[in-house]
Amino acid sequence: MELVYLWVEEYKNIKQQGFNFSPRFECDFDGKDLTIAEKLNYSNIFPKKLQITAIIGENGSGKSNILKSILQVSDFTNKFVIVYRENDNYYYYTNITELRTIIQKDGATNGHLSKSIAYMNYEQGKELFERTYKVIETTKKAVIYILIKNIQENKQFAISSFMYLPNRIEIKYKSQKDLQYRFVQDEDSEILDYLREQFISAGENSFHQFLLTKYLSYNGTGSGGIIENEQELISYFKTKGRLENLEDGYKKIIQLDSKNIFDLKEEKNEIEFYISDNYFSYFDFDLIDNKDRKYNSLSTGEQVIFAQLVQMFSFINNNFYLNNKNLLFLFDEPELNLHPQWQKQYIQEIITLLKTTNQEYHLILASHSPFLISDLPKENVIFLDKYKKDEDPNQKEGNCKVLKDGLKKQTFGANIHTLLSDGFFMQDGLMGEFAKGKIEAIKKFYEKVTQFKNNPKKQKKYSCYYEKKKKEFQHIHSIIGEPFLKTI
Question: In 377-482, at which residue ranges do the beta strands (DSSP E only) sit?
Fold first, then answer.
């Protein structure tokens, strides 16, 4: 699956704008005619059937809105056109009735494209999970779920920089303090104190405490308060027809005292109880590989990149997900939480994972990271800006604008400082603003010193000013990291 082109009449800050996602084609839409032209001199540097595109621009320029418009295109009431390539055939999908083109129309009722998308965004809302596309999460719960459901059946998964594939899971029942925090943290102070007293009186790891937490998870505190007495709680759940299931659940919890490490492959039926929605919040989890490395001991960046890649692998290689071939991956700022070293390795990790398959994949990244961009040819990058006031009578100030020229130089293999200093990432230089202000103050100090020295009438004033400031500025001058700036 390769996304070739998107044209949007209006969505948030995007108005009558077209986006070319494939460097091998140039598409255009003028309101009636959709044209496509292949670039004869194009050469793909990525493995066969893999394409990577980045969208970059300052905050508010429309990066995330482009991805979201792709996700929601089937629900658009405003006009849109989308072109994609699959198995060497080209298709378009649109709600425009009078559109002229040589491209084949997607005959699916809701568009085939929307069912072939996997999307990742750290701030996604619950409503996104109800869509037809797949969602890539980076939570520990998502990682555990993927590992238990299907990753263990296929041993091809590998990360080039470090190999970590857990085969065991450690499960511990949360402490009374953690359970209190989990179930009563959002109440006012009086209710908090009252509930803490109930937890203490129930006793840690007791059936009474367990029923109390389940009651709170179902009902909250409610206007009528809570049921405190253990026998009354038992009667309540018996009336609701839940008591037998809760007794079985509590037995599972007690069993963790004698065994709390399980084999992901051999004991996955037992594990599924603990990771179910009804009980997941009651436990602390850790994952262990065959070298006894634990998931909780990995760096945040290692956890994030592992979570992303293990889900990509699962979508591609397992039958648990329907229609999991030829995916279009949309990642919104995947470099968040990644150390610069991991940002440097990110594209290589993606390629290592995807090149083992024989399907078509297109990864589109909305990013702020020059490390990612340095692994991509300039033709694989969409450069965004915002329309300025009165720049275009058809556009509002702040609307999304595609820069045809992009950066002044090539991006592929470019030095990070070169990319940053181009002005696209950092318009006002690379130095921190606090340091910049201090150095500007030193420059002004020396300028005044020179003025006073050359004016005999101001010698006295110069002497007081100099003695007052020289100690502070001499220290700042001595710690400047840039050698050239030390000569000022």
Answer: 381-386, 400-402
